[in-house]
Amino acid sequence: MILGLHLEVVLVLVYASFLVMLALVLELLARRSQQRVEDYRSSGFIYFRELDYFECPAGHQLIQLQTDPHRRTTSYRAPASACNFCSLKLNCTDSDEGRVLEKRWGGWIESEIRRFHRGMSLTLLLLATMLLIGEIFRYSQPGDRQALAMFVITLGFVLFKLSPSLRQRRSE
What we know:
Layout: H1 7-41, E1 46-48, E2 53-55, E3 61-68, E4 73-77, H2 80-84, H3 89-92, E5 100-104, H4 112-138, H5 142-162
Antiparallel strand pairs: 1-2, 2-3, 3-4, 4-5
Helix pairs in contact: 1-4, 4-5
């Protein structure tokens, strides 16, 4: 016994903590990766929110081309004439119709990759919860059950808070 708990209960608590930490690391890495992709895609471009346009490194404006409410994106395009005669074109685009940037309305929160990683994180948290619940039924000592139940309640709250984020947003 360790701290008044059976060794197996302590090991399950440690393993459940490991799964929770793994889910947290997965969330953080996925968010960082997504941010790096977004930053790379629009590197050097400045977005002017008030006027709703991007400006390229050469100073040309990318104006709104189209909005896709289903994908929750807005596309911006630079004039082909500006891009085709620009000295930075080789490093910017191979299109003869002008550089296109896509802006996502919700960023990380609305992305499909976020939904995938959130599903993976929730799966890990659910696995930890199921292990803990199984241990609650295996051990009858109050100290063991109390330690396990406190962890289950905490994980249940986290699962409850995170699970709505998996639902698909409806098109507006």
